Amino acid sequence: MKKNDNYSKLTPLAALDKLKHYCAYQERCHADVSNKLFGYGINSLEQGPIIAYLIEENYLNEERYATQFAGGHYRLKKWGRIKIVQALKQKQISEYLIKRALKEIDEDDYLETLHKLAEAKWPGIKAPSILHRRQKCKMYLMQKGYEPHLINEVIKQLE
């Protein structure tokens, strides 16, 4: 028997009970909850009232989710704004909520984090020329989701 066979037998009421725990444990977005409901075998028509209930009872709040996601990924994973925005868009969070979430990140702290990441990476880069070294550092910081114009300023300071 497959693991998903159990989910397909859940009633909407049983799914709601599981989702209360799922949402109480950690902030979730509507897309996460909807995917979970599909996994439980709940169709789109039955999902609406369940999601509405979770919102009314404050189990589900996309603004709170976006703010915690942005802050957490910035602080813990040292992600830049670009990568955070892309991840939130994948979760189908609105532009408005993404902008509000990004405002919670302190600008001075953001620049300091970028500088620390660059300083930590710079000595470990082995490259035949300064141009290659700059490029490798820039690619690393862009992969982390930082803005190119900020990266260029930081790299100039390191040289």
TrEMBL record:
Its main location: cytoplasm. Residues 61-102 form the RecX second three-helical domain. It comes from the Bacteria. It is found in: Cytoplasm. Residues 108-155 form the RecX third three-helical domain. Keywords: Cytoplasm. Belongs to the RecX family. This is Regulatory protein RecX. The lineage of its organism: Bacteria, Pseudomonadati, Bacteroidota, Chitinophagia, Chitinophagales.
